[in-house]
Design a protein that fits this description.
Oligomer: single chain
Number of helices: 9
Distance between the termini: 76 Å
Order of helices and strands: HHHHHHHHH
Largest sheet: none
Radius of gyration: 18 Å
Structural class: mainly alpha
Strand content: under 5%
Shape: globular
Number of strands: 0
Length: 220
């Protein structure tokens, strides 16, 4: 197949959205396994955390949208991909100088891929733009939230002032807004991913923050 035609096929929404799902599951699974390594669990624990993180957000998305089959039930090979990622981390995590730093950047990458995946699935379900944005946020954040809560880590989505849910929201709104002005859907999804990663990376590397609530003494 000619390269130009191959690129066009890969950018077709019917193929691009499953590819985004595969990528987000893989990278989120790696972050889950890294959390398991920090907790010094056995291989089964690694696979459990990788699975919880890899499919958590997408599962909730599909249940809310009442899809005919949850995405990993329709594509069970995803569970094999998750297990392979967990095994890889189990045997290589000790080689890393800073597992937490790698965890942060992998999580940012996974968020950037998962948000447009969630948006794309919601668009295929023909729900309202508000629900589309919500599905992008849910797909991007809930797997990592469950990973951190079960792993007794401070959830990244709740770290004071950091752009995490904000990044997911910004990327989702970007996709919906671009589609509203007739931007091709694949391009809109890719640009949304870029916005998510830019905001999250800026928060981690440059200290971009939202203002936080500061309590004030009551007035008389």
């Amino acid at each position: 197949m000619p390269p130009d035609l191959l690129r066009q096929e890969m950018l077709h929404p019917q193929l691009l959205i499953p590819l985004l799902d595969y990528a987000s599951v893989l990278v989120f699974a790696l972050t889950g396994a890294l959390v398991a390594s920090r907790a010094q669990l056995d291989l089964v624990g690694f696979i459990f955390f990788a699975t919880l993180t890899g499919i958590g957000g997408g599962t909730l998305r599909d249940l809310v949208l009442n899809r005919s089959a949850v995405f990993w039930v329709a594509r069970p090979e995803l569970l094999l991909l998750i297990s392979a990622a967990a095994v890889l981390v189990f045997f290589t995590a000790h080689l890393l100088e800073s597992r937490y730093r790698l965890l942060l950047w992998l999580d940012a990458l996974a968020l950037a891929v998962a948000v447009p995946a969630g948006v794309g699935v919601a668009l295929q379900a023909h729900v309202s733009p508000v629900v589309v944005v919500a599905m992008g946020v849910i797909t991007g954040t809930f797997g990592g939230l469950m990973r951190d809560v079960v792993g007794n880590e401070l959830p990244l989505v709740l770290k004071q002032g950091e752009l995490y849910i904000t990044a997911a929201f910004g990327g989702s709104v970007t996709v919906v807004s671009l589609i509203e002005i007739d931007c091709p859907r694949p391009l809109a999804l890719i640009m949304g991913a870029g916005v998510v990663f830019l905001l999250r990376a800026g928060s981690m590397a440059l200290g971009w923050r939202l203002p936080v609530y500061k309590a004030r003494p009551p007035r008389n």
